[in-house]
Amino acid sequence: MRIIIAAICLILICNCLVAHPRGGGDSPPSTMEIPDSLFEQAVACIKRFEGWHGNHLPYVGYGHRLLPGETFKPGMSEAQADSLLKADLRKLCRMCSRFGKDALLVATLSYNVGYYRLVGYGKIPKSRLIQKLEAGDRDIYNEYVSFRCYKGKVVPSIERRRKVEFCLLYIP
Fold it and tell me: Which helix (H) or strand (E) covers residue 60, if one does?
């Protein structure tokens, strides 16, 4: 009897707890709370800068990296590639939802550089961008644009891409 009462109390206590986001200010948006027009701007921006990958395996469409077991072909239609890009970006938005109104911005960056390169994993440390967002500091322009290098060298086209993404997707 004591075990049943203890279990009921534990369930009631757990239901009363409220989860708070660790950064980004507002409560985390669901993918439905991100305005469709803003999401479409992010998709258009990715398509513009990523370009068509054609026969550049393991990437297909607009930069989707093939995962084990996936059977997408380089000759996919543009509609299929667009659908795949949107599905990938929605998934990343859900993964980044703890960053509140910066979720789409972080998801767009992670589409290009990789989610775990931003948030860290194992021996990979958290990026300064994520550290600032988790601390509630939204002054992230320099940290965002710092993801502009390839093999340690600044690439002007990547820098231009980061600036356009930030101007389009950052919500003050």
Answer: strand 59-60
What burial letters (b/e) apply to 122-145, b meaning 16+ CB within 10 Å?
eeeeebebbebbbeeebebeebbb
CA distances from 50 to 62, 75, 82, 154, 172 (A): 6, 17, 12, 17, 26
Alpha-carbon distance 49 to 45, whole Å? 6
Q: What is the mean pLDDT of the chain?
A: 84
pTM of the predicted model as reported, rounded to 2 decimal places: 0.78
Contact 169, 152 (CB under 8 A): no
Contact by Cβ (8 Å): 84, 92: no
Q: How far is CA 60 from the centre of its chain?
A: 19
Phi, psi for 78 (deg, rounded to 5): -65, -35
Question: Which of helix, strand or coil describes residue 97?
Answer: helix
Query: Residues 78, 84, 89, 93: is their CA dihedral positive or negative?
Result: positive
Supply the pLDDT for residue 3.
54
CA 71 to chain CA centroid, Å, is: 24
SS3 of residue 5 by DSSP: helix
